[in-house]
Amino acid sequence: MMQLNIKDETGPLRAVILGTAKSNGPVPSPEEAYDPKSLEHILAGSYPKEEDMIKEMDAFAQVFHKYGVQVFRPEVLEDCNQIFARDIAFVIEDKLFHANILPDREREFEAIHEVLDRIDPNKIIRPPEEVHIEGGDVMPSNDHIFIGTYTAPDYKNYITARTNREAVEFIRDMFPHKTVKSFELRKSNTNPKENALHLDCCFQPVGKDKAILHKNGFLVKEEYEYLVDYFGPDNIFEIDKEEMYQMFSNVFSISPEVVVSERNFTRLNHWLRDQGFTVEEIPYAEIAKQEGLLRCSTMPLIRE
Ligand SMILES: NC(=[NH2+])NCCC[C@H](N)C(=O)O
Questions:
Q1: Cβ 201 under 6 angstroms from ligand 1
Q2: CB atoms within 10 A of CB 271
Q3: Which of 48, 87, 158, 261 is deepest in the core (most CB within 10 A)?
Q4: Which of 296, 297, 298 to mutate to test ligand 1, by most ligand atoms within 8 A of the CB atom?
Q5: H helices of 8-164, where?
Q6: pLDDT tens string for the chain (304 positions)?
Q7: Pocket test for ligand 1, best of 41, 102, 197 (most atoms within 8 A of CB)
Q8: Does residue 54 sit in helix, strand or coil?
Q9: What number of other Cβ atoms are within 10 A of residue 55's Cβ?
Q10: Residue 67 C-alpha to ligand 1 middle, in angstroms?
């Protein structure tokens, strides 16, 4: 049996699910897109090629190998986009939550059965149907859990709004001893520069006390300021609209000292090194075209 353990975003990683770009399917039609950045590339004829994305994910797997992390891959389903393992499930402490994801993406969950079979069934939890929640919006931080959400009355008009009010209440009930703090995120179905698809598209803790943050991703000023206060203004790396579009906040921590980042994120990688981090740079610009990056492609199972 596998003992799940996730308390934060940066503890030393021991086991992870890494998505796969194999049999990703044909280029979707504009109507099939469920995020504005994919839509942009579908319309421009620059949608990423499977072979290029496979290479990028191989480079990511190599880094895990280098650090001795146990890596699970989903079973490859035919013509199914399984890159973003983050959203289909998430682990908090010793429980794995089966996300109530966008119906277009539901098939992806069954493909992680190799991992599910190793987990005590009592530790696998499926929230009730009315709870919409995806792992990209959920971030445990020791005695806190941060959740990205969208609760305005036009929620159902946004295919980019994936985590609802019921989800915040559900997580609160599950973890009564933790502070569950929610953040209203800016949503756009058509403009990727005005869309924080998930919380990890505008915010990401790094190390023990630092964070990458994008102000415009948040709809409520006080909620953004809560995070600035939580980490302290000097510990925040604020990114602009263009950097958020490139997904600067979607890097991935292997430990409090080691961050995997995209090789073109010059300003961020420089800052990280200045702060004493080891930065493992890999190419991930093709996958970035689908509005997800490194954190989105992983689903951590065990951190120490
Ligand atoms: N955790 C994330 N930010 N995941 C990104 C998922 C991107 C994917 N195109 C979607 O719209 O579902």
A1: yes
A2: 16
A3: 87
A4: 296
A5: 36-44, 50-66, 113-116
A6: 999 999 999 999 999 999 999 999 999 999 999 999 999 999 999 999 999 999 999 999 999 999 999 999 999 999 999 999 999 999 999 999 999 999 999 999 999 999 999 999 999 999 999 999 999 999 999 999 999 999 999 999 999 999 999 999 999 999 999 999 999 999 999 999 999 999 999 999 999 999 999 999 999 999 999 999 999 999 999 999 999 999 999 999 999 999 999 999 999 999 999 999 999 999 999 999 999 999 999 999 999 9
A7: 197
A8: helix
A9: 14
A10: 26
First to last CA, the chain: 17
Write the residue with the smallest CA distance to atom 6 of ligand 1.
Answer: 292
Domain residue spans of the chain: 13-303
Phi, psi angle pair for 115, to nearest 5°: -80, -45
102, 186, 291, 295, best to mutate for ligand 1 pocket (most atoms within 8 Å of CB): 291
CA of 290 from ligand 1 middle (Å) equals 7
Q: Is any atom of ligand 1 closer than 6 Å to the C-beta of 203?
A: no
Classify domain 13-303 at the CATH topology level: L-arginine/glycine Amidinotransferase; Chain A (3.75.10)
Q: Is the distance from CB of 212 to CB of 203 less than 8 angstroms?
A: yes
Which residue's alpha carbon is nearest to atom 1 within ligand 1?
136
CA 161 – ligand 1 centroid, Å:
11
Q: How far, in Å, is the centroid of ligand 1 from the Cα of 66?
A: 26
ipTM of the complex: 0.96
Determine the distance separating the centroid of ligand 1 and the alpha carbon of 108, expressed in angstroms: 13
Burial of 232 (0-12, 13-18, 19+ CB in 10 A): exposed
What letter would DSSP give residue 9? S
